[in-house]
Design goal:
rod-shaped, mainly alpha, about 65% helix, 4 helices, about 130 residues
């Protein structure tokens, strides 16, 4: 999931998106563990070190099932935009743009060779 979140952001904001994603994940993990501990303590009948009653564990199990169902109900409402590019930009048009830029660079490099300005030609290795 994290990969999709990062690639849907502009390159300059991907690290910020990763930080926010990791922070939210850690916070909700801590909240879930806190709620589970509270349920366990509320359902425990004795304060013995070794619990032999299954009632607290069953309550935590049903809490986890309810949380998973709630998460599954939210999934259809999630929308993930175009991955890695702005909307309306296709892969074919991006490839065409790259080819045009490469052609322009090659043209500038060849023009640099023809001029006698005393500087080295601008050649790039591809």
């Amino acid at each position: 999931m994290q990969m999709y979140v990062m690639s849907s952001l502009p390159p300059g904001q991907q690290s910020l998106g990763g930080g926010i994603f990791n922070t939210v994940t850690k916070v909700w993990t801590a909240v879930g563990l806190g709620i589970s501990a509270s349920i366990y303590n509320a359902e425990s009948t004795s304060k013995a070190a070794l619990q032999t009653d299954i009632k607290p564990y069953r309550a935590i199990y049903w809490f986890c099932v309810a949380s998973a169902v709630a998460g599954c109900l939210v999934v259809p409402f999630l929308t993930i935009g175009t991955q890695g590019h702005s909307t309306g930009t296709s892969v074919a048009s991006l490839n065409e743009h790259r080819e045009k830029n490469n052609f322009q660079k090659e043209k500038e490099a060849s023009e640099g060779e023809e001029t006698d300005s005393g500087r080295l030609p601008n050649k790039e290795l591809v």
